[in-house]
Design goal:
Elements: H1 2-35, H2 61-71, H3 84-87, H4 135-140, H5 153-161, H6 164-174, H7 181-194, H8 201-206, H9 214-224, E1 253-254, H10 270-273, E2 282-283, H11 305-313, H12 337-348, H13 353-357
Helix pairs in contact: 2-6, 2-7, 9-12, 11-12
């Protein structure tokens, strides 16, 4: 009788322990569910075309916030010294004004850091050479690039797992405290997709809220008017051919003649596609905020907008030059000094100071 009573007591004890752990697990899961914040993030894009937001990674308040934290998180680098924001500074339209960005250990990247805004209007791969298929793919590559952040994705995950702050934020964004490199990439993609520029003087001009002065207006005419050597007075610089549309780019890869046959050291897009026709082709970038993002070109060779305009005024021929420049050969656009200054003045009207000062894009730390 006594033995039976002891056995019953032990059985009840085990049952209580089981129920305690079962309830704890259930409560933990309930907490996770209750902390999910799937509130959609409301993007603003003015008169830009409606963006094509990835269907499998729609923007949420919690996802964008997590991506913002990760964008400025120095733990993503090997020595905890730099973040994505180190090379993509908000004050310079999320670009780097150094010719080549400095990575961990004093190393330097091979190309000039591209500006990060209006990514939702880029649908033709990412980086100067298009080696990243999606923005989420691009977001992870600098982390494990030895010349940039020099870290491994496994180490980054382990660092973040030790932070209770990140555990709770991953729960809010993804419904689980589990941290993975895929979730990191999705959050970074969300934040970068939220960085949108549409508040320049030129946008205000189009909306009837601002007036271009005479020099800026001359630059606008030259920018949007086709080159026509038969009628010099009516001829323009035909910039819109490559930098057209509301985002001032064509989302293509082109050879713009900055290197000749003998000086072409970086083959650009060809290294990705292995297509000889892609030799020396690089991504055509947006001209929005261009005055804030020197130096220019994939290698940062031009320090000023004046140097850029001088290049396009007299593009040199090569075996790889894009056909769109052929009609300008051999004499170039024949722009006067006043015309060149007017083009630069117009390009400066594309600056968006609201973007560079908006607190929702700044570091949360």
């Amino acid at each position: 009788m006594k033995k039976r009573k002891i056995a019953t007591t032990i059985a009840l004890l085990f049952m209580m322990i089981f129920l305690i752990f079962a309830c704890k697990k259930k409560n933990d899961e309930t907490v996770d569910i209750l902390q999910i914040d799937s509130t959609p993030y409301e993007i603003e894009y003015g008169d830009l075309p409606q963006p094509n937001i990835p269907g499998d990674n729609k923007l949420s308040n919690s996802g964008v916030q997590l991506g913002r934290m990760l964008f400025y998180e120095k733990m993503l680098s090997k020595d905890n010294s730099i973040s994505c924001g180190s090379c993509h500074n908000q004050k310079t339209a999320f670009s780097d004004t150094n010719r080549l960005s400095k990575g961990v250990g004093g190393s330097f990247g091979k190309r000039h850091a591209m500006a990060v805004f209006n990514m939702l209007w880029n649908s033709n791969k990412f980086f100067w050479d298009g080696r990243a298929h999606l923005l989420r793919d691009q977001s992870l590559m600098p982390i494990h690039d030895n010349l940039e952040m020099g870290e491994t994705l496994d180490n980054v995950v382990n660092k973040l797992r030790k932070s209770s702050q990140y555990s709770s934020q991953f729960i809010k964004a993804f419904g689980s405290s589990e941290i993975t490199s895929e979730k990191i990439s999705l959050a970074l993609e969300q934040f970068m997709n939220s960085i949108i520029s549409f508040n320049s003087k030129y946008d205000d001009y189009l909306a009837g809220k601002a007036i271009l002065n005479a020099v800026e207006e001359r630059g606008r005419f030259l920018f949007f008017t086709e080159y026509n050597p038969s009628f010099p007075e009516a001829s323009g610089a035909d910039c819109q051919h490559c930098h057209g549309g509301a985002n001032f780019e064509n989302d293509k890869y082109m050879n713009n003649g900055i290197d000749g046959n003998l000086t072409l050291n970086d083959v650009g897009r060809e290294a990705v596609t292995n297509n000889p026709n892609d030799k020396g082709k690089f991504k055509v970038t947006s001209l929005r905020n261009i005055a804030l993002t020197p130096p220019y070109m994939h290698d940062g060779r031009f320090k000023t907008l004046e140097q850029v305009v001088n290049h396009y005024n007299l593009v040199k021929n090569s075996n790889y030059l894009d056909p769109s420049f052929q009609q300008q050969l051999p004499n170039g656009l024949l722009l006067s000094n006043d015309d060149k200054a007017a083009l630069v003045a117009f390009l400066k009207t594309l600056t968006d100071t609201k973007l560079t000062n908006d607190s929702k894009f700044s570091s949360p730390f």
